[in-house]
């Protein structure tokens, strides 16, 4: 019987494409946040550049403006929120945020916390309540009347609750939170 020998291999931990550009353009994200998020992103996003599509500090705080900025987008998007307690969390959406009568999206969608600690909440398979856009709010994840992430039309007030879609904990320190900054990143 021959002894099998594993060939040595080199593991290269490369930074995501354009990391310095992402951090430079963001009011929220640090390099460590981007690195952690990239480990969780679906394969179809690899090799694409992150592009800031919407930011409350640059474009104002209006859900209608956010929808307009994303109207020509066909890539997945990442929503990142910094709240009044300096906690950072958000969602990766398989499809861009848009007004919709029903929930849409796929199981690629997930919720995450970035600061004070990193944690990712993937789809449980329990339901398909991924993304819902209304004119007066948007919601990510749901079940039993609770949304994993909900934000109002002024992109100022939000709520996070455990939900069946992602089996997540509350993303913010308290159920209700105030948005200090909200960014939406697309892939191009």
TrEMBL record:
It holds the Pfam family TLD. InterPro entries: TLDc_dom. It comes from the Eukaryota. One of its GO terms (cellular component) is nucleus. SMART domains: TLDc. Residues 27-188 form the TLDc domain. GO terms for biological process: regulation of transcription by RNA polymerase II; response to oxidative stress. This is TLDc domain-containing protein.
């Amino acid at each position: 019987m021959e002894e099998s020998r594993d060939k040595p291999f080199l593991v290269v931990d490369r930074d995501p494409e354009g990391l310095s550009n992402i951090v430079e353009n963001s009011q929220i994200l640090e390099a460590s946040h981007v690195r952690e998020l990239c480990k969780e992103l679906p394969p179809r996003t690899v090799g694409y550049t992150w592009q800031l599509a919407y930011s409350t500090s640059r474009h104002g705080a209006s859900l209608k403006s956010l929808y307009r900025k994303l109207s020509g987008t066909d890539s997945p998007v990442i929503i990142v929120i910094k709240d009044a307690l300096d906690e950072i969390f958000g969602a990766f959406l398989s499809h861009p945020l848009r007004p919709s009568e029903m929930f849409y999206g796929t199981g690629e969608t997930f919720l995450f916390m970035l600061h004070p600690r990193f944690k990712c909440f993937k789809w449980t398979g329990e339901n398909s309540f991924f993304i819902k856009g209304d004119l007066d709010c948007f919601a990510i994840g749901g079940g039993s009347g609770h949304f994993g992430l909900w934000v109002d039309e002024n992109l100022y007030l939000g709520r996070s609750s455990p939900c069946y879609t992602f089996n997540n904990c509350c993303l913010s320190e308290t159920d209700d939170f105030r948005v200090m900054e909200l960014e939406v990143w697309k892939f191009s």
